[in-house]
Amino acid sequence: MPPRAPFGRRLAAAIDTYGPLCVGIDPHEELLAAWGLPSAADGVREFALRTVEALRDVVGVVKPQAAFFERFGSPGVAALEETIAACRAAGLLCIVDAKRGDIGSTMGGYASAYVGEDSPLAGDAVTVSPYLGFGSLDPLIEQARATGRGVFVLALTSNPEGAQVQHAREANGTSVAARIAAEAGHRNAAELEAGEPLGSVGLVVGATVGSAPRDLGMDLAAVGGALLAPGLGAQGAGTDEIRRVFAGAEHAVLPSSSREILSAGPTGLAVVAQRVQDGLRDLRRSDGGTSD
Ligand SMILES: O=C(O)c1cc(=O)[nH]c(=O)n1[C@@H]1O[C@H](COP(=O)(O)O)[C@@H](O)[C@H]1O
């Protein structure tokens, strides 16, 4: 038995309780200044812990972006570890946005770091990059499943440069993005057959990608894992864009927003997050969803 319930089950329960919004914890330089915090490990630590505290009971999921912690070296990494622990204590699911990806044997090392049972850097899920081949991720995916954790695999990223790689097609005409979606779907099949609401292997599909999933032949509804959708807010996407990109798969979408919410400051961010959350509950209702 894994030490905790499977990630997909825990995520589905969090979405049912709070709604689908994930808030990114991205302590940008400008945001630290606007919050009156120093550009130092202590500043990002304070920023992240205040954000976690403010979001308790407003959202079910947060996503600290590792880069903004790592830039301060080991004290910054310690601040990330403290943030992960604070999420656990607050009952928030924590997706560590580290976007790791390497050859399979090295992925075993990343697995120990980000989904290892007792690792201080392990949240509830981690973002990974499949551009060394999807199979290279398997050591991490297997360990994540064994510890009740999840993985979000980049498929169609929110930035315009992503298309150069992700829209490319294999000799048989299959797009890279569709192949990644299909590979994730295979890895979720057993959990879904066992009755889990969502598999442990999610995808990252930007809320800004428009008709690309359809144009590229991706079957998002068949992935069976959650669809993390950054790009909401600061990158220009709103609920309408999400509705269009994820038509037919709305039940699995986890829209994510960082700067739009964090720029409201430590005392205002909960109100903004609640407003965004409320708009997204409507999205689920329009899909016949049950989250009330
Ligand atoms: O994996 C991610 O979270 C991610 C994937 C992607 O395609 N685009 C994307 O913006 N992100 C992350 O989502 C966050 C977006 O932040 P805002 O644009 O401030 O909402 C950043 O931490 C990005 O690194």
UniProtKB/TrEMBL annotation:
Pathway: Pyrimidine metabolism; UMP biosynthesis via de novo pathway; UMP from orotate: step 2/2. Its EC number is 4.1.1.23. Residues 20-274 form the Orotidine 5'-phosphate decarboxylase domain. Gene3D superfamilies: Aldolase class I (3.20.20.70). GO terms for molecular function: orotidine-5'-phosphate decarboxylase activity. One of its GO terms (biological process) is 'de novo' pyrimidine nucleobase biosynthetic process. Signal peptide: none annotated. The keyword Signal does not apply. Keywords: Decarboxylase, Lyase, Pyrimidine biosynthesis. It catalyses: orotidine 5'-phosphate + H(+) = UMP + CO2. The active site is at K99 (proton donor). Pfam families: OMPdecase. PANTHER family: OROTIDINE 5'-PHOSPHATE DECARBOXYLASE. NCBIfam families: pyrF_sub2. Belongs to the OMP decarboxylase family. Type 2 subfamily. This is Orotidine 5'-phosphate decarboxylase. It comes from Ruania alkalisoli. The gene is pyrF.
